[in-house]
Amino acid sequence: MKRVITYGTFDLLHFGHVRLLKRAKALGDYLIVAISTDEFNAIKGKKSYQNFVLRKKMLEAIRYVDLVIPEDKWEQKPEDIKKYKIDIVVMGSDWAGDVRFELLKKYCHVKYLTRTAGVSTTRIKNDLRT
Ligand code: C2G
After folding, report:
1. Active site residue 111
2. How far is the CA of 119 from the centre of ligand 1 (A)?
3. Known catalytic residue at 46
4. Is the CB of residue 40 less than 8 Å from the CB of residue 71?
5. Which of 5, 6, 9 to mutate to test the pocket of ligand 1 (most atoms within 8 A of CB)?
6. pLDDT at 130 over 80
7. What are the b/e assignments for 5-20, b being 16+ CB within 10 Å?
């Protein structure tokens, strides 16, 4: 049983998120998503349109996702890896090389998947404004 985890806000769930989740699940048998709490988003300097409860419900409806847990601090990742016996941490390529993920290589595999071009929550919000 190969266990995969990924982290993110997943606001206004879109095709880029779904493609990331699909590819992450294909790397193992069980996919955990650690979704940023509203409070952690504030630390990340992000304000999501949908709150934590709604974003969590949306992710739980995705066929590739087996478990959704809260992400409430940068430093929780090593604990998550140990607690959930994670084999692979997966992130989109915009995180490639980031020290907060590179340091996890001493605990498990870390894999960056190409970010889906042309779609983002910011772009959706901007396009809807015009
Ligand atoms: N993503 C993607 N393609 C897009 C948009 C997003 O592959 N067009 C990926 C991102 O690379 C990330 C995941 O989808 O791996 C979630 O994206 P966000 O919700 O923007 O997450 P982020 O704010 O990057 O939070 O501790 C890590 C942070 O919580 C990551």
Report:
1. no
2. 11
3. yes
4. yes
5. 9
6. no
7. bbbbbbbbbeebbbbb
